[in-house]
Amino acid sequence: MNVTVSLLHEPSRKRPWIVRWWGNPDSDTGKQKRYGRVFKYSHEAKAFEAEKRTSHNRGEPRDPVNVTLEELVADFEEARVSSLSYKSKIGYENTTKQLLVYFGKKRKVRDIGRREAEAFIATRKRVCNGESDLSSWAKTRHLIHARSIFTAAKVWGYMDDNPFRADKLAGRSALNQNPKGKPWQHLTPEDFRKMLSEVTSPQKRAAYWLMYGCGMRAGEAYNMRTENIDLKARRVHIRNRAATAEVSPFTLKAEGQSVESKERSVPIPEAALPDIIAAMKVAFRAGGFVVLTEQRFQTVQAHWQMCYAKEGWRGHAWRPWQSFDMMNNMIRDTKTFLDRAGVELTAPFTLHTFRKSFAQNHADAGTPPRTLAKLLGHTNTRVTMQFYNRVTDANERAASDVMNDILKTAGTVGVAVCRSTSLPHQRQRSGS
Predict the structure, then answer these.
(1) What's the pLDDT tens digit per position in 257-277?
(2) DSSP labels for 148-182?
(3) Mean pLDDT over the full length of the chain
(4) Does 220 share its domain with 170?
(5) Which of 105, 199, 296, 310 would be a feasible disulfide site paired with 70, CB 3.0-4.6 Å?
């Protein structure tokens, strides 16, 4: 039996480095198939050759594994998706359904090429309306999910390359999809004060302060309990909470990811303390939840008891508990307060706008990106930088004023230098 793995170099080829190996002998004929893979760079070829030799020495199959797309999806769901959050599972489920319809359940994973992968992403439509295009954000989610699935296929040896990963020469390929940022309403401190003047409920005032003054997500604010607020240190701690029969769970999520994020601690603005303290004084009526009213807490508890017992609630089938199950009509009430305060909305507004406005205020004030990323709970500054790229007219004027001051100073220094370094005959002439 031929067991060699060879590395060849043919300079005339576009990809000159070639790794060749033999498959396992056929059980009937004893013949072996020969396989090969080409590379542009020698270090890639040598690494692949070493990997092949190691797998052969371990006795792993040498022939390509002809796994179907249906089998890959099942393996991926078992190995990777099972540990994700409910919302992330729904996202992957949507993508895998469309993959199976587009390529076919019995399609061999190894036969799916980059052209077909690009066509899949480019042709995605809304499920509820086949004539409506998806947003760039929704297409990017499909791309991220498909790329993760086929990356796993490559790692598991089901295929040699990931067709959903574009190279640097892909240009305007659908595989280079980047979501376009959606416009959103920046709520200025003046607008926030106007809105807050229309709010009388201590719980709602505390909720707004936690989102706008501490940069918390709405789900984080509505899951905040009194034991997570340190008034002496003037800090609020955002922490995961395990489910019990009495208390619903809370799992902190990283920005744009489906894994548990690091817990964080955020300072409370001094202006927020009176409203937060007022809400904490009556929190015992709501089981310790700071921003829930007694009535809302009773409703939440009833829903949680049904969820804990694996029963459906609100007339729907059972599903895992989510952070938004703590809230009710908050966005409707918020828009009412803004309207009464005379704050005009010129862009889409959601509860997440409070958190974004918190970040924008810090960016405008010059808070370092790494510091702001830590306050927001971002795993890196890539997402945080969007607020520094959103330059306002005030920022531009401030930057212009700084440059004017620099140039004025430089001009004054230049004149002084010129005077001090004037030639002797020039000084004599000026004195005559």
Answers:
(1) 444 457 899 999 999 999 999
(2) HHHHHHHHTTS-SS-TTS--TT-TT-GGG--PPPP
(3) 86
(4) no
(5) 105
Residue 64, domain member (yes or no) = no
pLDDT digits 0-9 by tens, 54-70: 888 888 777 777 899 99
pLDDT digits (tens, 9 = 90+) for 27-40: 788 888 888 888 89
287: left (phi > 0), else alpha (psi -120 to 50), else beta?
A: left
State the Cα torsion 347-350-356-358 to the nearest 10°: 110
Give me the helix-helix angle, 136-155 and 114-122, nearest 10°: 150
Res 309: pLDDT: 95
Residues 6 or more apart whose Cβ sits within 8 Å of residue 76: 96, 148, 149, 152, 153
Question: Which residue range is the domain that position 249 belongs to?
Answer: 189-389
pTM here is: 0.71
Looking at the structure of the chain, the number of domains it has is 4
Task: Give the distance, in angstroms, between the CA of residue 48 and the centroid of all CA atoms in the same chain.
Answer: 32
The pLDDT value recorded for residue 412 is 57
Domain boundary (147, 176, 205) is at: 176
Give yes or no: residues 383 and 398 share one domain.
Answer: no
Which pair of tokens denotes residue 381?
């500054």
Task: Write the burial class of residue 41 (CB in 10 Å: 0-12 exposed, 13-18 middle, 19+ buried).
Answer: exposed
E-assigned strand segments in 131-258:
229-230, 235-238
Q: What confidence score (pLDDT) does residue 56 get?
A: 84
Angle 226-229-232 from CA coordinates, rounded to 5°: 125
DSSP state of 137: H
Which comes out higher in pLDDT, residue 240 or 181?
Answer: 240
237-274 as b/e, with b when 16 or more CB fall inside 10 Å? Answer: ebeeeeeeeebbbbbbbeeeebeebeebebebeeebee
Please give the residue that has the higher pLDDT: either 130 or 409: 409
**How far, CA to CA in Å, does 307 sit from each of 114, 220, 319, 325?**
43, 20, 7, 11
- Quick: pLDDT tens for 347-374: 989 999 999 999 999 998 889 999 999 9
* Contacts made by residues 170-174, CB under 8 angstroms, sequence distance 24+: 173/118, 174/118, 174/119, 174/121, 174/122, 174/139, 174/143
Q: What is the DSSP letter of 324?
A: G
